[in-house]
Structures are given as structure tokens and as C-alpha cells.
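agent: user wants the structure for Carboxyl-terminal protease from Candidatus Woesebacteria bacterium GW2011_GWB1_39_10. delegating to structure tool.
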Amino acid sequence: MAFKLSFSKVRKSVLGIFVLLIVFTFGYQLGVRGFTAEVSKSLQVKIDRQTPPDKNVDFSLFWQVWDTLSAKYYDKSKLRPSEMVYGAISGMVAAVGDPYTMFLPPKENKVVNEDLSGSFEGVGIEIGYKENRLAVVSPLPDSPAERAGVKAGDFIVRITDVSKKIDVSTSAITLPEAVQDIRGPAGTKVTLTLIRDGDKTPIVIELTRAKLNVPSVTLNLVGEDKSIAHVKLSKFDSQTTDEWDKIVDQILQNGKIKGIIIDLRNNPGGYLQSAVDVASDFVPVGTTVVIEERGDGRKIEYRSDRLERLQNYEAAVLINGGSASASEIFSGALRDVRHFKLVGEKSFGKGTVQEPIDAANGSGLHVTTAKWLTPSGNWVHGIGLTPDIVITPKDTDKEDVILQGAIDLFD
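agent: tool returned. relaying C-alpha cells verbatim.
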């Protein structure tokens, strides 16, 4: 199978969580252990039945099913070889049993790429698996989901969209399918049935999709004398490093700032390199920010390679159950290296790394290639990071108690 790698600086991602936001135009050859499919611009498919490279693999059942469908299925218009090939690939990848390793056909892959560019249409939620159930990782700031009261940790048990004729349970749904069902054009509606942790009664919320273009980094000054920089990072996407650099310039030009609060609550992650870039502003050049551990036991250290512009500032990091992946990399690094306090609630707990690989004709493959460790060697997968200062908000709170807890550290 010929995949084209197109990484900038190692386009590596811990984005299994991030990808699940909400989620043929040229000829190519696709080899999947036993057959080659050539798809032309007109989507006509020519199948050559080759002997599988692995002599221990018997492909006769595959071809038996393929031929039986072709011969007996009553509606021949539904037998689209290109879609059948995609389905076969998706099933092969799903058989690995890792929800973050997935094949994305062109439509789904386009959705993911839009998410990483920072602009898309939808309801504004990141989704993933929690306790083997489809769950909200985080609602995006000022999104339809956040305004409607969707919360990080909510389990999605049903997706309903009358216009798409969708009314499905999520018990057997794949992540790409869930993304496709929830995502849609601005102005259209989708209904989510949710179960909130600790509650037995389902919550039914109708959401109107919108055009979303959320900056990944924002700055506010907080504290009695506005001397604390409250920097909110909503994700680590392709724009984050540039947006972060502008925020750092504002902090450095303000002579009154005495401390920085990095707010990673409901940040579902994104590009590993973006997290390393942002963390590099707080740690000495050459410091290990994250460690990748491959399946063969090899360990690769990602070190800071930027000047530590914020080395003279004390900082605190805010996390909660929606802080995942690259957010946990950043949080773990700053606690291990600078001993900054983590404030809030336990993080999500995703400790694997995916490589997004561009495949033919706009499709994509996300492969889990390693697990990541904090600089001190801790693996957070399925566990999460426990804050140094645990603060659990209540619905009756009239202020942001987690943010206030961090502000109090600087008094």
C-alpha cells in the first residue's frame, strides 16, 4: 500500500482524541494483502487478484464474500467497488482493536484536516472513548455544545438527525462514523442523547450546527491588579505555535505581569510538536519535554529547541477531565521539569501517539506508533494526571473556582 508521508518537522500527533472532533479524485493503486484495486477519476475499479504476500493468509473467504455480494445482492447500484475497498480497509484497521488507529476515507479525512486547521462547521465537541463508551472529551469555547450545557465526560448514547435520516445507538458505532453523523452544515440540527456520570436519566439536547473558527490561544489579565496572565489554550493545532508567539510577545511587553496561568481545561490535544514548542518557552534549551516509547522498546526524547522566553515567570497549569493527549504532555513536562502546580481535576488519560499519514485521493490513516511518557517516565494512559491542588467545581459555584484557586497561588 503506497502512502505518502507529508510531515512538517515530524507531523506527529497525539491526536486520537483531537481527530474525533465532533469526525476519489485521482487514479491510484491500493494493495491489501491479496488484491490490487485501481481507481480512476471516474471511480471505475479494476481488481487484480494477486497472491497475498503472506503465504499464511488465506484470502479465499474475502473473494467468496465479494463475489457472492456481486452476484446476489438485489440492488446493484449499491455495489460501489471503491466504497467496498474502503470498507475492507476500515475493517482491517479496526481489527487491531485500537480505537485511535483508524482508516479515514476522503470525506472523514477532510473533516479531520479542517479541525486541525482551526475552522469547521459542527456543534463544537471533541469525542473519544472513555470506559469503552463514546464520550465527550470537551466542548469548544462558545460553541453550540457549550452554550447548550454539554459537559466533558458526558457519554453519548444516541445520535439523531432527522434531515440525514439518522437515529442510531452509539453502542457499536466507530469514531469516524460518530464524527460524520454529528458533523454537518451550519444551520442544521442534530440531537444528542447523553448520560452524565452519576445520573441514570438520559439528557436529550438538540444542537444547531454553526461555523466555528476558534483561536487556539487567548489571553486575559486576572487578579486584583490584573498582574496575572491567564492564557487559555483550547487545542494544539497547526496555528497554535504562531498564536502562542503573539501572546508571549504581549506578556513580555507588559511589565506588570508577575505570573502565568496556563489553562488547558477541555483541551483535547492535537500535534505533539505544538505541545513541545509551547512547553519550550518555560524550560531550558535541550530539556526533555516528552519521551516516545516504541513497541520494540526504543525511546526517543523530544527536547526543547527554542529559547526559554518565559523562564523567569512562575506558572500554574489548569486541567480537568477534558484535558487530554498533548495537554497532558505539556502539563506533565512543566510539573516534572519546573515543578509547576497542576490545579483542578484529574485529566483524561491518553498516553499514545498517532501518526497521521496521507493516503491516496484524500484518504488518511492514523496509526498508533508509540506510547508517550512524561520526562520522569510516567505513563498516564487510562490513569490521567492527578492535580497537586484538586478543586472540583459545583454547579452552584458563582465563580470559576479552579481559576481562582490558581490565582491564589500568586498572592
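agent: one observation worth passing along. The first helix runs from residue 16 to 19.
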